[in-house]
Amino acid sequence: MDGKTVRMYTCGPTVYNFVHIGNLRTFTFQDILRRWLHTRGYMLQHVMNITDVEDKIIRSAMAEHKTLKEYTEVYEKAFLEDADALRLQRPERLVRATEHIPEMVSAIQTLEAKGYTYISEGSIYYRISKFPEYGKLSHNDFSGIRAGARVDMDEYDKADARDFVLWKAKKDSEPSWNEPIGDGRPGWHIECSVMAMKYLGETLDIHAGGIDLTFPHHENEIAQSEAITGKPFARFWLHAEHLIVEGQKMSKSMGNFFTLRDLIEKGYQPEVIRYLLASVPYHNKLNFTFDQLKAAGTAIDRLRNYKLRLDSNTFSAGINEKLVERTAAAVKQFDEALDDDLNTAEALAAIFEYVRDTNSAMDSGDFHEGNLETARALMERFDSIFDVLRPTVRQGEITDEEIEGLIAERVNARKSKNFKRSDEIRNQLLERGVILEDTKEGMRWKRK
Ligand code: AMP
Ligand code: ZN
């Protein structure tokens, strides 16, 4: 709205368990969005919530005789570790629902004063019929809504619009907050309205989440926020389509439910998973398959080999003007694809076609020293968004510095004709997954 800073709110995880790769698909899309907005010159004020009070959390915490905090902090930490492994940039603010109870209470009081609420069995509900625009985001027709039908859970039956709970009365020994509006706890929807507006103002630039949140969660956020402020709540809504696995909805009972940890345990590198999650435009369903995951690994290898070639070959002097133009065209294609509602598939196609063309130019000796800078800049532009070229160093794995150190030692050993030591080092590196290649342009290394 101010032409400089994009104020963005994204619905974060409910920390009752490890996040799954479907959640991570949505979070990866948001990361690509962040990075592209940055590249296009915007600053970001991005807020993500952590839902740390909710039906499932309360059930699980009580079953394990833990406080909400004790129960959720484990999964919050795990979420942040997973996000780091996938190289998701941290939002400017991560905010916990339980740390914003007074603000939620006061928002509910405002809704109460404006006549949007009613009380039933001690809980406070939002009266949807008071908000005639209800349904404008999901374009559902709620004209037949049953007035007074209520839902007080955080888990919803899709398709059916019902008055939703703002403040849920305490039941039995559930954790609760004793507030002027009653002894209870907030509903899920009020949390996002309140935290979004607290940090980003009454009208946000972007609100994003997974497609399942469109209704009822985001519809309810609009109803609450706009009833409070009388202003539009968000200017743009972006929803990621779901990830499915081998054509099926992911579910624990089907045995096709994966967390990031599951896949890493199976030996897949986080950046390979990131690549696959980012490669399908967010407005399309993503069909996750192990074949695709292997293909993602191969794709990254091709790009890494190409980059290695740029970094380690020696090229003849001069410049190939045609290639300069080819590079500019690739940059344009890449940028236009991402400008087009983040068409990541197109953007990747631009890079792969370019890599194929420049590889053949190198083969035929038509790639010159003067072409290096722009070629490198394009790969950097690509990687500043996709971020997959740097291999993840696993615990105990040899670092780039150690490799370079051993290679320097090997060069010296060979200079002094100590071939025994030189071979030793080569084998030692091989054992640790590093391959040395003596090419006519000199020595280069890569990880297996
Ligand atoms: P939750 O922790 O359930 O609140 O979900 C966190 C985010 O993941 C929300 O934006 C959801 O819409 C999104 N999400 C849940 N399941 C999937 C899925 N299968 N594919 C993509 N996004 C999902
Ligand atoms: Zn939300």
Helix content: 40-55%
Order of helices and strands: EHEHHEHEEEEEEHEHEEHHEHHHHHHEE
- Distance between the first and last residues' Cα: 48 Å
The beta-strand count equals 15
Major β-sheet profile: 6 strands, mixed
Helix run count: 14
**Arithmetic mean of pLDDT:** 94
In this entry the ligands are: adenosine monophosphate, zinc ion
Tell me the strand percentage band: 15-25%
Structural class: alpha/beta
Low-confidence stretches: none
Task: Tell me the radius of gyration.
Answer: 27 Å
From the spread of the alpha carbons, the general shape counts as: elongated
Which secondary structure elements does this structure contain, and how are they paired or packed?
Blueprint: E1 5-10, H1 21-39, E2 43-50, H2 55-63, H3 68-85, E3 93-96, H4 101-113, E4 117-120, E5 123-126, E6 150-151, E7 163-169, E8 177-179, E9 182-186, H5 188-200, E10 204-210, H6 214-229, E11 234-240, E12 243-245, H7 260-265, H8 270-279, E13 286-288, H9 290-312, H10 321-339, H11 344-363, H12 372-386, H13 400-415, H14 419-431, E14 434-439, E15 442-447
Parallel strand pairs: 1-2, 1-10, 2-3, 6-7, 10-11, 12-13
Antiparallel strand pairs: 4-5, 5-7, 7-9, 8-9, 14-15
Helix pairs in contact: 2-3, 4-5, 5-6, 8-9, 10-11, 10-12, 13-14
Bound molecules: adenosine monophosphate and zinc ion (ZN).
